[in-house]
Structure prediction request, 1251 residues.
Amino acid sequence: MFKHIIQRLCSTILLLLAVSFFTFWLMHATPGNFFDSLRLNPQISQETVARYEKLYHLNDPLLVQYGHWVINILHGEWGYSFYYNVPVTHVLGSRLFNTFILSFTSLILTWGIAIPLGIWAALRRNQWVDRILSVFSFAAFSTPSFFLAVLVLYWASRWGGLPLGGMHSPNYDDMSIVGKIKDTALHLVIPASVLSLSAMASLQRIMRGNMLGVLRQQYILAARAKGLPERVVIYRHALRNAFNPLVTLLGYEFASLLSGAALIEIVCSWPGLGSLLLTAVRAKDVYLVMSSTLLAGVLLVMGNVLSDILLTWVDPRIRHAKGK
Amino acid sequence: MQKASNHNSRTQLAFASFRRNRVGMLCLWTLVILYGMAVFADFICPYSYQDEDRNFSYCPPTAVELMDQGRWVRPFVYGRALTFDAVHRRVYVIDQTQRYPIRFLKGGRLFGVDAPGRFYWWGADARGRDIFSRIWYGARISLSIGLLGVAISFILGLLIGGIAGYYGGWVDTVLMRLCEMFMMIPGFYLMLALRAAVPENFNSVQVYLSVVVILALIGWASLARIIRGMALSLRERDFVLAAKTLGVPDIVIIFKHILPQTLSFSMATLMLTVSSYILAEAGLSVVGLGIQDPVPSWGNLLSDAMGIVPVIFAPWILLPGLFIFIAVMCFNVVGDSLRDAFDPMFSGDSQ
Amino acid sequence: MPPNKLFIGFFIFCLISWAFIAHASSDHYGGSLVIATSSDPKTFNDIVSTDANSGAVTSLLFEGLTTADPFTLKVIPDLARSWDISPNGLQWTFHLREDVKWSDGTPFNADDVVFTFNDLIYNPDVPSSSKDVLTIDGKLLKVEKIDDHTVRFTLPVKFAPFLRAMSQSILPKHCLEEAVKQKKFSFAWGIDTPPVQIIGTGPFILSEYHPGERLVFKRNPYYWKKSQEGESLPYLDKVIYLIISSPEAQLLKFIDGELDATSVSGPDYPLLKPLEAQKNFHIYDAGADFGTRFITFNQNPGSNPNSHKSFVDPAKLSWFTNLNFRRAIAHAIDKKKIIEILNNGFGQAQNGPMSPSSGFFYDPHVTVYDYNLEKARMILKQAGFDDRQGSGIIQDPQGHPVEFNLLTIATDDPLEQQLAYIIRSDLEKLGMKVNLVPLEFNSLVNKLTSSFDWDAVIIGLTGGVEPHFGQNVWASSGGLHLWNPHQPKPATAWEARVDEIYDQGAQELDENKRKVLYDEFQRIVTDQLPVIYTVLNTDMYAVRNKFGNLKPTVNGGAFHNIEEIYIMRHPERSEE
Prediction:
């Protein structure tokens, strides 16, 4: 099992390098030397500009610049945000955490609701429950999420009770730890549920499909013939096999959640990586754009690795194969 | 060359099964209608997409009058003028002295009224542009972007997936790692980053093409993986081995034998990809980075509606959202039905 | 003494002392005010800040020697208790208050005043925005300490706006002199400074700053001002600025109760007005805004000293410096419809640099450009701009097609976006090709004030009662002279005349003679069109009814007397 993980890690590092090079190349495709305009900004000291020019070797060929950028990243030097007038790391940290909270909560919501619903639909195939869920699922993943978010925000403003956007209440700093957690949770309700909705819908259908496929298999027939109670048949045998393939999806689920989160963050004013990226793009803040994209990639990679490990743990076939 | 007649009749069976699926067919026909309306937008829309009349900002849908003093007459509309009420709400007061009969088939358009009258069947936007017209001109952009993007993604996916699957070995490993790299970058982030690199002075056509390319780049990787899976299994088939024995060059085998088969299998995935591209374009336009005003796309039409005030006082501005929903839903249903129709074959070929 | 008299005496004594106690320990203390700001401040350094968002933050933290009475607009004492004027009007001696302390407890004294002027504002290494306003006829004011609580200003010539200019914020010497010595003052007190280091004399101090989220200010325990009853101010415990970039979100948060006040735009009005009773707030109409909103074109002939690339393409420069080009564009601004569409019918056309709200110095008799595309086309044709190649885009006399980039502030508000779209639509009807480039506000400010690489921009500036305070905009050497800033000497005859007017106007003490000068200035601006005005908004704000001492004014807004504002225990509508 360890060998597998190490292999995975190696390939992910290679992948990260490739992602970062791609973003780097992209940013340098933008015309104009960024630093010329910076030099004229009186609020950015000449020393800062000179320091970053030196760090990034702007007069060297692209590959050399990239090499320096990578080395700098590894040293914790992620560049300077000229929009916020602080090093990039000052801005990224909290934003990353916020996006992570949102995505993770959505992930739990999605899986926590979609799996049971998928099983339920499979067990009641073609009955009214299944049909209704089917219609809802299609509707849910056909609606543009940002549109849904605006409608939900508007409806919530009429109804009251839920905070409308943002992550903290104005008096957050005065709250106790418990209060803070409750406050953040309340603010999570709208963005996380809108975000989860379409992911839930597709996952539910996949789970249903898998379940149905498994229930057709011979060993299920055999288990029933053996006289095992239906509950055992379904939850011990069928479920496990229907569920395993989904774990491979976990990584990609996280990717699409992260991506979907960006737009929801913008609409719901959630201070995360996505809304940071939008501001950075609009401000043409080059290093911030690169770092945010890279960071999103890192987050994703970690999600993938975790899901791989989870898969190995969950699926005995892989475990035993690796053991050989 | 021996055709895999086995396979072809399976494909035919699958399509026949799809045709029996009523919901799927209904959605397919809806899509045909949507695309048809888009193609004939010049004819069916009373106004061009940039025809603005600032005197009619947020004018509600114009009612068609059929009765005049108790008698049936040819349909017409009344003139309207803008006033503000006590709380500064916009109210369009009907002026019964001004009548504009609806003209049919005049000036190359299906219906319309003569100037200075305006006929807003589905209401007007902030600058007095007809929503009905803008939705159908916008359909041209939104629906075509999806197709074009998928076409490019598919070609990329075919090339990379086909080659990877057919050759296997280290070629396969390298190419699949490349795919994973692309799949790993969260789509929206990639879109924003790519969009930041597009120069400011691009005209609308260039922006359109940039958006198409950006969309294609975020989606080709998953297509490639699916095609690679199919190619992997197809290369073991008899007809391929036969072709190889006969000395047919690899590239010809890939293009003539393997790839056409993958098309039918990938149809379902293609449909689903189109729907995700339509949503992606809408997302990009809503933050102002997609298609730019005045060219309409359903996405940027919807960005006009992203405000409490328009939603409350001019709810017709939300209609493009309905069309996005319908188009995406139809693509999803068709894709899903195709997948069901091909299902028996899929379970045999799954990795 | 008979028991009942004693009892009555005691009873009366209790009553009276209870009244005193109730009065002295009033229940005015406590609570917070939550308002919104649309973007992060760029800096906490009041001396170098150029944008209104940073200004909104620093206005809570710092004070000046004088301030303006929000009702009468007259200058009243603030950090200075009183002042004497020498007979020739050139020496002003300010007697500082002796009970003022900085928020870290250090006493405030004349050293701080002298430091602020001599070492900060007049420091050649510091890009201070007030330097131009406080330079008269090229000469600086002489500022000297007489004793710990007395400062003398010696003016080179008479300076009419002098007293009003003394509202300039004073910064603490003991905190910043190190930075000045090391020539690092311009980056001192940037937004990543720990809040506890920002020291001022104002009613509040910065307690927390979460970028992109909120700024929290808490009561300055050393604040010197007391209420009329002798209570120490401010009453509020906290002021919280939520950073909400979308006006939409601000509106929603006000409706759901998170914000205590919000500005109300024209389109929001029909939504908010009916909710007044239910949500317990009131909408105040403050009249025409003081600020301006205009299009301006880059007439800067210079080039980037590092890359040697000129700021503006030479062909474009020839158009932008052509008065007829600008006149044609002035005839293409559809002000009436912009008011209807953008502002929902509120507001008025803006024709000149001063707003009717400015009162005395406002001149309505300026050159007005009506919306007339035919006239615009004719002017362009006569100037040699015509579509000779039949491409649909007009060309200048040298054959270059007229295409340029129009920068705007990036916004998600679909109605705000309409301003740029409407203008572009009309310019395209004239045959020009206009590319809209939305940029984040702070990046836009950078382009306009430091890198200068832009073509055209739609932007606004704040305004006020005293025309002289626009000097950094209108003097040719000014930093906010957007179309061609920091000129070593005036580039055109009219700019030279405006420089003269500003110098003379500052020194003329007779208000009526000043008015003549500034009227001429307003007419010059509208004749020469360095900027092309669009529309003037009506300032409205909605404030919850729970605040006492709320005295909204046209000039100061709702919270100009923030130190006096308190939360009423039994809310009632305050007097307007």
Remarks:
- The mean pLDDT of chain A is 77.
- The longest helix of chain A spans residues 177-215.
